[in-house]
């Protein structure tokens, strides 16, 4: 945290007046604003000394304003201004928009004894010393949440209208310079991506940590439902129905109970998640990666390649479609923030300086203040735990399309392989319990079904014996030098039969241990089909083998229904983007703690079979 400079700790007359100021701009008095249809709560500015939930150095007011879609939806904002702001002084605005800013709690009641602004991003406020650095912080409840009316609309056109209205409102307030930046993680990182896509002049920069890049991908994988196909709907319905605090003002209380008189909101929200067709308008209107085409707001993102919640699916498409300045921290972590630490005090992402870098990013694009420290555009941690600096991501030195051939498998969900394991004396693996608890983007229960010990090796053994098993493998020849697989791998194939297909990539060591480092599933489609895997950044060491598994969905987190059919695969090909680690430019950063957890969870026994292709064609693999 930066040393806090001395500031006046009293609310100025200007701030007192601002408590009565609302609408989409101007400095009109309360009576005029009532005519305009948007008014402040009238509760007056509140300091930390008056309410300990207000961050030190700030003054809290509440405001209401309409969404931009003319639906009648009224949005609620908690505004935190620097305490002691002088009359006519203006500051740039950091804006967060999402479902987690209710006064009672983020995803459920948190036991507060009295109302106050959400502490969701208190780490960011303190880490940047935000108010002393001359910024306002505004938290806006999406429709249906907190103090906002309307039906929740998970990433859809309604929420997109809310984001547009919030940016416009924040830019036009009398205390605002008109320069707005967005900040968030998970869901409120999604709204940051939406903000970028809207191409509003007032939005100068977006920081988005661990977002969902295409809303469909959080619920389905190419037609195959994930376990949260119902759980996510239930979680957000629950958050939207959270009761207000007893001492919230009457207008806030009425808005917080909106769902009680509009139960159709919850029903309609649940219905959307049951649409499995990715091309349905419900999902195409939420395809943020496609909608980013031509956008140019300066963007600072983080993404864990081995994320177990908001996965790196369509990330590369989003970044390719974005045309503006980019910054990023990418690496081998789970669903964490840039400044988070694990229990032993190590940084969860492994890299120092999150708050300094984000503040410098905002200073550059919201204040026009050039950075005093030159940070890399992208700081990337690969699978070895080493960090490198690069100008963009991915950096591709060579794209290859590798012929995998074909084979057959039984879409039985791995039943035959597990039965064979049991017959060989290996204890039958226990069925993974159904996940319980909340399933919003911040709180996803562990659902990944780990591969039972020996499962992959048993499948390979049956394949060598000429049997048709739950899947089949194709192995590369050993690599002659280290080579990184980066970007978004893609498998294309022609399949005959009905059912599901799972695609996995393994890093196989000479001792027969293998790490599954990428996967994806899909419904089998007639004719030629292509499946994008998750974005990755994985270095294969010299002497290692790349193994590709094609078969039934046996592990992972999907709610699939095996068909029992034998699926015949022909002409399979793997497209990879390759990068030579020898060219890396090192930058500061330690091994992220989650990387070792991932390696423990996803290392299996899988001795390499006969190599049929070279990762780097031309004899240089």
Automatic annotation (TrEMBL):
InterPro entries linked to this entry: AB_hydrolase_fold, CocE/Ser_esterase, Galactose-bd-like_sf, TAT_signal, Xaa-Pro-like_dom, Xaa-Pro_dipept_C
PROSITE patterns: TAT
Keywords linked to the UniProt accession: Hydrolase, Signal
Biased composition annotated in UniProt, kind: Low complexity: 35-44
Stored Pfam families: Peptidase_S15 (PF02129), PepX_C (PF08530)
Keyword flag Transmembrane: no
Region described as Disordered: 35-54
Xaa-Pro dipeptidyl-peptidase C-terminal domain: residues covered: 359-587
UniProt-recorded Gene Ontology molecular function terms: dipeptidyl-peptidase activity
Region forming the signal peptide: 1-30
Protein name: CocE/NonD family hydrolase
Lineage: Bacteria, Bacillati, Actinomycetota, Actinomycetes, Kitasatosporales
């Amino acid at each position: 945290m930066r040393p806090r400079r001395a500031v006046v700790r009293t609310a100025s007359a200007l701030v007192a007046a601002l408590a009565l100021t609302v609408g989409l701009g101007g400095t009109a008095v309360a009576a005029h604003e009532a005519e305009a249809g948007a008014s402040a709560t009238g509760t007056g500015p509140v300091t930390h000394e008056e309410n300990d939930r207000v961050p030190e150095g700030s003054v809290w007011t509440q405001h209401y304003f309409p969404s931009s879609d003319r639906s009648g939806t009224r949005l609620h904002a908690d505004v935190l201004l620097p305490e002691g702001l002088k009359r006519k002084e203006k500051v740039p605005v950091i804006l967060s928009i999402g479902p987690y800013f209710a006064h009672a709690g983020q995803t459920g009641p948190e036991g507060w004894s009295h109302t106050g602004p959400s502490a969701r991003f208190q780490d960011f406020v303190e880490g940047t010393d935000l108010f002393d650095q001359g910024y306002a912080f505004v938290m806006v409840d999406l429709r249906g949440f907190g103090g906002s009316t309307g039906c929740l609309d998970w990433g859809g056109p309604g929420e997109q209208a809310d984001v547009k209205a919030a940016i416009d409102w924040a830019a036009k307030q009398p205390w605002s310079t008109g320069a707005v930046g967005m900040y968030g993680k998970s869901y409120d990182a999604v709204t940051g991506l939406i903000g970028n896509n809207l191409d509003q002049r007032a939005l100068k920069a977006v920081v988005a940590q661990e977002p969902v890049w295409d809303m469909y991908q959080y619920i389905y994988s190419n037609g195959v439902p994930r376990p949260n196909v119902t759980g996510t709907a239930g979680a957000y319905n629950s958050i939207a129905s959270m009761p207000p605090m007893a001492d919230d003002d009457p207008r806030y209380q009425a808005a917080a109970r909106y769902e009680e008189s509009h139960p159709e909101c919850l029903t309609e929200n649940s219905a959307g998640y049951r649409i499995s067709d990715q091309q349905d308008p419900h999902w195409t209107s939420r395809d943020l990666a496609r909608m980013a085409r031509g956008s140019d707001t300066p963007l600072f993102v983080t993404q864990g390649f081995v994320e177990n919640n908001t996965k790196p699916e369509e990330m590369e498409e989003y970044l390719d479609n974005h045309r503006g300045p980019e910054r990023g921290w990418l690496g081998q972590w789970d669903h964490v923030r840039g400044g988070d630490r694990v229990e032993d005090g190590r940084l969860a992402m492994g890299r120092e300086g999150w708050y300094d870098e984000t503040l410098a990013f905002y200073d550059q694009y919201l204040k026009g203040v050039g950075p005093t420290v030159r940070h890399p555009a992208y700081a990337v941690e690969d699978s070895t735990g080493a960090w490198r600096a690069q100008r963009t991501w991915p950096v591709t030195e060579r794209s290859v399309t590798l012929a995998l051939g074909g084979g057959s498998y039984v879409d039985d969900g791995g039943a035959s392989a597990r039965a064979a394991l049991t017959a060989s004396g290996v204890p039958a693996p226990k069925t993974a319990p159904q996940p319980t608890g909340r399933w919003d983007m911040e709180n996803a229960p562990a659902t990944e079904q780990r591969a039972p010990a020996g499962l992959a090796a048993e499948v390979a053994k049956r394949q060598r014996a000429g049997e048709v098993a739950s899947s089949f493998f194709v192995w590369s020849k050993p690599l002659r030098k280290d080579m990184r697989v980066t970007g978004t791998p893609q498998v294309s194939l022609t399949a005959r039969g009905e059912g599901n297909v799972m695609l996995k990539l393994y890093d196989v060591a000479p001792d027969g241990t293998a790490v599954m480092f990428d996967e994806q599933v899909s419904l089998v489609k007639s004719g030629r089909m292509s499946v994008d895997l998750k974005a990755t950044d994985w270095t294969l060491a010299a002497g290692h083998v790349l193994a590709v598994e094609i078969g039934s969905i046996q592990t992972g987190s999907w709610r699939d229904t095996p068909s029992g059919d034998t699926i015949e695969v022909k002409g399979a090909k793997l497209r990879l983007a390759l990068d030579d680690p020898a060219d890396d430019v090192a930058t500061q950063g330690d091994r992220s703690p989650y990387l070792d957890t991932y390696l423990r969870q996803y290392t299996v026994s899988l001795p390499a079979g006969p190599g049929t292709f070279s990762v780097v064609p031309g004899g240089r693999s």
